[in-house]
Amino acid sequence: MKTPLQHVAAAALLALCANAASAADIDTAPIASSGWSGLFVGLHAGHSWGIGPDSDEFIDKMDTDGFSGGALVGYNFQFDRVVFGFEADVSGGDMRQEPLEFLDDGSVQSAEIDYTASLRGRLGYDMGDWMPFVTAGLGIADVKFKDDFFGFVNNDRQTFIGYVLGGGAEFKLDSLLSTGTDGKLLGRVEYLYTDYDDEVFDIPFDLGPSDLETHTVRAALIWRFN
């Protein structure tokens, strides 16, 4: 016959086993996911500003800035709450440095970024109706430079290539508006910084290597296929 102490010990052991089993069920249960995987496409618009093109020779420091907008496409994979994927985008707009006088004789220089593009990886974390993310990859900028030197006008175009870093957040518009899209219509805000390798504009005299950096703050409207 069991003593009262044995009954208490047996009950405690049964309770401990039950608690362990419950904990195991919780630990092994899949994490609820709100779903961010799949193909997505979108449109984006915002403001971009740059430092450059600028050289140590004959190009005065320029500050290109203006509206930028374009399209994007990408694909996400999701494991539990971790989301990673790839994205490509292209942007056009009105990023320019208006004619800037650099000599007392009225000689001026100007620059315009016709388009930018990037190919990036992304890493995010599923927070339910929204997802913060970071991104990094390759950036491209097509830059047109114009020089009016003592009345002689020269033009050249160069493609700058560099790296992109940034981050932002996406959110399901269903959580804010009754869109009826079942989480497929997304909004996004993000910041991108791009540092390009130096390029030399090919005009009759040597301008020296020109550097370029750009910053972009933009919003996007995205449709996710899943």
UniProtKB/TrEMBL annotation:
<protein>
    <submittedName>
        <fullName>Porin family protein</fullName>
    </submittedName>
</protein>
<keyword id="KW-0998">Cell outer membrane</keyword>
<dbReference type="Pfam" id="PF13505">
    <property type="entry name" value="OMP_b-brl"/>
</dbReference>
<dbReference type="InterPro" id="IPR051692">
    <property type="entry name" value="OMP-like"/>
</dbReference>
<dbReference type="GO" id="GO:0009279">
    <property type="term" value="C:cell outer membrane"/>
</dbReference>
<dbReference type="InterPro" id="IPR011250">
    <property type="entry name" value="OMP/PagP_B-barrel"/>
</dbReference>
<feature type="domain" description="Outer membrane protein beta-barrel">
    <location>
        <begin position="10"/>
        <end position="225"/>
    </location>
</feature>
<keyword id="KW-0472">Membrane</keyword>
<dbReference type="InterPro" id="IPR027385">
    <property type="entry name" value="Beta-barrel_OMP"/>
</dbReference>
<keyword id="KW-0732">Signal</keyword>
<comment type="similarity">
    <text>Belongs to the Omp25/RopB family.</text>
</comment>
<feature type="signal peptide">
    <location>
        <begin position="1"/>
        <end position="23"/>
    </location>
</feature>
